[in-house]
Amino acid sequence: MKITILPSAKGDCLLIEAGGVSILADGGMPDSYEAEVRPFLGRWAAMGNELDLVYVSHVDQDHIGGVLRMLEDTVLWRVHKHKLATGKPTNKPAFGEPPLVKRIWHNAFKALVEDNAGEIEPCLLRRRARCPVPPILRRSTLQPPIATLPILSLRPSKCRGALLPTS
């Protein structure tokens, strides 16, 4: 497992890579996304990487702001590519193309009252039937008792902000 802690001002932004799965947890503040996270993700995507999952822990600006900017960047790049493909004049965005985002999860059920009113379990079962969770993510989201959780020791790596397992 590799965890890259990206500069995010007062928020959080973590890139977690394990077993061929890449997860971006939160996106930090919009300004720190533009200054730090956007360039990193552009380089990361240019190496052929994709985000299997973007997880937003909650809708406070210091967690969702950067994710919203990343989605806006994705739209700008899609418009640019569409114009190129149809022979229309276009200006290439001044930043690298963000990685493909396969899924987005958020912990903001209260913000979607219409879809999520009532019991949560039937709602989750309906969603799971429509979008099965990949096995590696399913294992990582189980909630065992605290006593059974493995202890993971991390050490700093030579990569800025990355932590690696000690063993």
Structural class by helix and strand composition: alpha/beta
Indicate the radius of gyration in whole angstroms: 18 Å
Which regions have little confidence, pLDDT < 50, spanning 5+ residues? 136-167
Strand order of the largest sheet: 5-4-3-2-1-7-6
Strand portion? 15-25%
| Mean pLDDT, all residues | 76
Number of helices: 5
Looking at the structure, what is the overall shape?
A: globular
How would you describe the overall organization of this protein?
The structure is a single chain. The protein is α/β, with parallel strands linked by helices. It has one domain. Helix content is 38%, strand content 17%.
Summarize the structure.
The protein has 167 residues and is of the alpha/beta class.
Descriptive tags:
38% helix, disordered C terminus, 167 residues, alpha/beta, 7 strands
SSE arrangement:
Blueprint: E1 2-5, E2 14-18, E3 21-25, H1 30-46, E4 53-56, H2 61-85, E5 104-106, H3 113-116, H4 120-130, H5 135-140, E6 154-156, E7 162-165
Parallel strand pairs: 3-4, 4-5
Antiparallel strand pairs: 1-2, 1-7, 2-3, 6-7
Helix pairs in contact: 1-2
